Fold these 3 entries.
Entry 1:
Amino acid sequence: MRKVEVCLSPELLHLYDVDDKIVVIVDIFRATSTMIAALASGVTGIVPVMDLETCKSYKEKGYIIAGERDGQKAPGFEMGNSPIAYLEGDFLGKKIAMTTTNGTVAIEKTKNAAHSILIGAFVNISATTRFIQNQKKDVLILCAGWKGKFNLEDSLYSGALVSKLHPHFRTDCDSAIALKSLFESNSHRLQLFIGQASHAKRLQNHGIEKDIDFCLEMDKYDFTALLQGNEISIHKA
Ligand SMILES: O=C(O)[C@H](CS(=O)(=O)O)OP(=O)(O)O
């Protein structure tokens, strides 16, 4: 039987075997939710980048540059890390280079070893579940966390995904078992529960409650986002 594990932070990644696995990168607030919003708005490719300078250099290649640090749009960038911003503009056929505090770093850390990398978010969780169910691979869910620390929102997403995969996947990983249980006992009040998260409070201080609401919406979209080469795009089966 296939196996699912959860790594609670990129700082713990060295303890896991990534080779030949499907890795689901999750950064609910907000990088991976924002990537799904951008693709849903017609963006054809997103290049995740570790640092601001490399990201800026994509401008001359015709990319829209999106840069965020500590919850704010970085100086000199066209976009920050708001999913809502992608729902408002004209992004059809555009490509984006993106760097964020936690999310794009987590992608960079796994991209050379994994069999495939999926972008995980509540807004497309059922599509991601279906994609995984159709593959014959073990799964590692990697929480981007916050600056190396555990966070509630990525963990709850991990629990939700483990719960959805459960009948077909074995979980002998304690974090997966714990988060499945945490999700199942709080699924009826998810918004309220995640509202306590330190990250939600940080973002509320920036006045971006609409972003938080968006990131916690379940199954708004029915597509999977996959890293292919160095670019994230919608996966067509
Ligand atoms: O913009 C965000 O939501 C965060 C910034 S921070 O963690 O609040 O500083 O970046 P992300 O990479 O999406 O976690």
Note: The CA atoms of residues 2 and 136 lie 7 Å apart.
Entry 2:
Amino acid sequence: MSAHTQTTTQMAQALQKGSPTIVVGNFSKNYGAHRVVDHLSFSVQPGEVFALLGPNGAGKTTTVETLEGYRAPDEGSIRVLGLDPIRQAQQLKPRIGVMLQQDGLYPALTAREVLRLFAGYYAHPQSVDALLERVGLTAASKTRCRRLSGGQKRRLALAVALIGNPELVFLDEPTAGMDPQARQTTWEIIRELKRSGVTILLTTHLMDEAERLSDQVAIIDHGQLIALDTPENLTGAKNANIVRFVAPEGLDCQQLAALPGVKKAEEVRAGSYVLESDTIPTLLVDLTTWLRDRNVTLSELRVGHGSLEDLFLRLTGSEVRD
Ligand SMILES: Nc1ncnc2c1ncn2[C@@H]1O[C@H](COP(=O)(O)OP(=O)(O)OP(=O)(O)O)[C@@H](O)[C@H]1O
């Protein structure tokens, strides 16, 4: 099937399910001779949290900014809430919220003034004070933006994205630079938004964030879609096939790999071992017998599945990108 036929089929399938909130069909974008998004297709259903993951420079921000109407596609078609983000921007903008990566837009205004300013752009904004409270900025509401900490700036950017009661929110690395408390609060806000039916497209470099929050995860690399599924399906969460254990370093991994049903045995860090098998109960018996026979003291033993981070690194490699 050609890429075009495939995209047309995907778009037709998406439309049959009801109106998707976002439909990206065969979208490509070049900067000069450099193709940064390469025939990307996906759709986001109403009320879904959709995570876009990829190494630095993979094309995430370019994609998100095109969905927001700030960049024009070179090829393909984009529909957001059924609208063309550029030609129908006036209809679209009041219905979406955007959390930008750069936070320093109004250094001389206080947090409350920034929110009041943005509230003025919408017909039915949220209460500024309630939103400041929700994102934990009440005490800092009179602080000028340039004096806010990095995490506080991110929380203000989140509040700006939510002030207009949007149907769809774009969150670009929403918890980057936040401390664990602020991160938990932000995750709770995202879950509340989802419960109230808001659709969320998020980009993140935090795999646990994507795993906890999203209904669908798309991984892109070099502008191409390389994986798209639920976090459970991507990590095989329904099918635990990994045993991790901690014991003295230097155990013989060749012998461990030779235990019945073991597909892989590795000492991933000194004294930290990972075995992969589809027959976990049998493996546990054989492994503990093997350890007992060698008088090996076990300090931890866990059964689980691979993480999104494992999959991400396997698909995109471990080389650092520019
Ligand atoms: N305006 C521009 N002009 C030229 N090249 C650009 C422009 N914007 C982005 N790029 C390049 O396009 C590629 C994709 O960038 P993009 O910001 O979309 O990636 P990203 O996946 O969001 O990365 P990160 O995780 O680092 O934010 C990069 O190589 C980047 O340098």
Note: The chain has a mean pLDDT of 89.
Entry 3:
Amino acid sequence: MVMSGTPGSFARSVLTDRHPVLLRQVADGHPYPPDVRRALDALAEETAAPAAADATDGPSMGPLPTGAAFPDRELWERWGVAHYVGRKSWYDVPFLWAENWFYRRLLAAVGWFGPGPWQGVDPFAPVKRAELAGAEVAAELAALDGLDALAPGERDQALLRAALWGNRADLGFRLTADAGTTPDSAASAVLADDSPALWRHLAAAPPGTAAVHLIADNAGRELIPDLILLDHLLNTGRAATAVLHVKPYPYFVSDATTADVLECVRRIGRAPGRAGETGVRLREALGDGRLAIRTHPFFCAPLPYAAMPGDLRAELGGATVTLLKGDLNYRRLVGDRWWPPTSGFAAATAYFPGPLAALRTLKSDVVVGLDAATVAGLDADSRTTGTSWRTSGTYAVVQTRT
Ligand SMILES: O=P(O)(O)OC[C@H]1O[C@](O)(CO)[C@@H](O)[C@@H]1O
């Protein structure tokens, strides 16, 4: 199990380095009133790094307010609050638990669940909005016009790759990315690429039957290529229906919510050329139900997908394929554990209720399904550069179990 406070670990650095920056960014993002600012400061204090770099003690994880501000209490009780909250230090719990409780507490601090005037105001909206208005998004949408020149197979692959590398545009990841860790495109590589198997699997579905589910990760520059990929699958008949699973509330900085889906569809539709046509089709598909949005609460659980509840298991079990986007979904898919990187992907995901494909850039320590020579080469490079290949965002995988 990856723990939150292991000295010198990436997980610990997320708590000690990334979370304080994020809290400041949230406080600066909206003109929050003094009580919200005080609540954010209190969360920063409670989660601050212990004085010694190897200590895992400190204030225990604090609770949420009672009553209306904690409408999902029952869920969190089921997910393990009693084991950790009020009992364990932030630096002495599973990494997944610490991060998820942090984001849930952050939402409580800004009044997301209300009641009150800040109910439903996304604390991450300012950064999400800025990204959507940026030049990169405009350029990426304009690049769709070039797809006509490609052969059908190349077009498939270009759109799959766009969705894959879109995962690198994660706003949380960029909170602490610096010159030493900013992904270097030239060195980027897909370490395991099962995309031919994914395309074969989709092609093998009887015509007009395929249901493609996509468990989304980040909004903006990641969700746009995800939506474009789903449109492509619908438009070319490889999917009869598509289901887009997003978070029920703002989470992990830039994770997509329903509001973000609508913003992205609007942004795609406002673009000229091919992108604009795609935006029109996406609106139609949402309107006629060929593209459905789901917001299952389990997508905000601090647990691996092996623990998914029966209704979600049944829904994903009916998918022709489920595409899981991003780093956090990958950690939850294989369990947030220190797997030897050469462990089999199929074995680690055998419990998953149906065929699946993980599209993920590597931004945390967990990985499976790599060959020994690749791992040896990457380890040697990391020793030379001092930057971990597992967390730099330079590498990616497309792994399937069909
Ligand atoms: O948006 P993604 O790809 O799920 O990445 C989430 C990021 O947040 C983390 O949970 C740490 O903040 C890492 O796993 C990863 O860098």
Note: Residues 10-121 form one domain.
